[in-house]
Each structure stands twice: as C-alpha cells, then as structure tokens.
Amino acid sequence: MTIQLTGKEFDEQFQEADQQAQRDPSDKLDVTYKFDARISNGQRRKVYLREGLSLRTDIHQIRDSLRVNFPERICNNIYFRFSLSGQGQELFASRPNEALSPCVAGKYRIVSNGLQPQMIGDYLDTKPYSFLGVYFCPSVLYPFVPSTDGKLPKNLQHLVRSSSEEAYVRSGNIQLMMATVLQQILHCPYHGMIKRAYLESKAIELVALVLDHEIAIQQEDIKKDTLKPEQLERVHYAREILLRDLRNPPSLEELAHQAGLNDFLLKRGFRQAFGTTVFGELRSHRLEMAKQLLAEQNISVAEVAHQIGYASVTSFTKAFKRQFGLSPRAHQKNCR
Does the 3-218 domain belong in CATH 2.130.10.10? Predict the structure, then answer.
C-alpha cells in the first residue's frame, strides 16, 4: 500500500524529532535526526558549515511505497542533490509527463532559488535511499566572481532568481570527480574544527565541479540527447563488454568495433550516458568492485588489486584512496 503525505506532514517528522536530535559532541552544528519509523527507517544529518552553506545527507529505507505532495514554495537557497541509492521520481504537478529528476543512483540535480511549483515525489523502492545535498545562498558564490562588478558570469546568472521566477532545474550524471568528493565527504576522517574546515572545502569543491559542468552545458560543449536511441543502446552494450573482464579489458578501438560504433560516437556516448570517459567508467567500476570485495571477503589488498586488473598494489592503493578518501586497508578494517 502506498503511503501518501503532504509536504508539511513529511517535514513535520523532523520538527517532532528535534528534541531527540543527536548532536556531534565535537560540533554542535552537526545534527542527526531520525525519520518517523511509521514512514521510514533511517536518519537525516545536517551540517551547518557557515552562514548560507550547509550539507545534508538522507539515508533511510521506506516501509512501503511513498508519495509526497509538496506545495508550491519559494526557495531562498540553491541546492545540488546527489542520488547515491534508491529509485523513484519527482514531477511538477503542472507537467505530469515530464520528470523533474529520476531519483536513481548516479544522478544529480541542480535547483536554483526562486519559485518551485507544486511537486509530486513518488518513491517506489523499498531498498535503502541515500542522498547528499549541498545547500547554499547565492551570496556564497559572489566572493569567487573574478570581476569588480560583482556579477556572476552570464552562463551562471540563470541560477540566481527572484521569488516570482520559476526555479531552474537540471539533472545530470554524477561524474567521476564528483563521486570522489562525495565519498570523501561521507567518509570524513576528522573531528571538530578540522572536520568543519575539511567539509566546507569539499562542499565548495563539489559546487565548483557542478558549476563547471553547468557552464559547459550552457556553452553547448556538452550536448544533451545527441545520440539516436539505437546508438545509445550500443553504448550500453559497449559498457557491458568493457566490464566483462576487468583484468583484460578491450582497447578503445576493439571496444568500438565490438559495439558497432566508431571511436568518436563511443567516447561521446559514454559522456552522455554515464557522464565520464570509457576508461573513467572502467576505473570507477573496478574500484567499486574492490570496495565490495574488501568489505565482504577475507582477502588481501594485493589479491583484490589483481582481481580487478591492477598490476601494481601501489597504483591500486592510490586510486582507491583518491576515489573513497581512505586506503583499502582502512576500509577493510572499518568493515570488520
């Protein structure tokens, strides 16, 4: 049975939980709330980094399919939200056939400030959902403006809107560098003041990466929906081929040939479908596989490196730490 809530009812569960909120002993501005167990099992964590800038993570598992009707509202913050697991969709009520954003792993969403129309969120997956969001006021961007007039570059000005303008919304694929920073935030090894400095720097880095992608889109360096459906299907087939044998993956030319594409379409297709390069996708998959092996099996770091196709344990260790913010051994120790 689908649970139906208004946006107010959904938000009230955290207001009611405020008295029982857990605060980090070393940081009173790092607060964790529990979801209402009648709706979902899990928690929401908010870290208030400085005025106008905060991080939020939601990790929870809904008890049943959930539909939330969010009313029209004015948003003062810009936010970037990254979906790490779970499956659902969110729609503007005025555009029921147009998905605002599929809430699926590997996708991110930009929402500017301004007027956000009534929205319907359908969360269908009873497996765990996890999101990480960066919320910031437009004023956070202005110190980085490289001009004396204080104006954002033209290809970013659409992110700052008045309360009467409809919010700008765009979805995209989480790219490798974004994924790396997300993992570093989630596995922050510091506490107190050092933690806050680290998380603030990573939040700003994440904002910079998304804005760089946004500028590229606005400049039409990245084309959306440029491949035909049959070509996109071949790109997904190419990914299957690429990941079949992590120790001996095909070369770019071999992969293009086997998938029935030329090099140019293959590279462009991977950027469009997965937000990364061919071998960026291979590297990311190898490291995710390594993470899983280290967590689930009694296996040495050297054996894991060999299984996923790294000839050097040193190279594997560096790549793993760059991706997840900690060494393979530290990750394995944390999982035991």
Answer: no
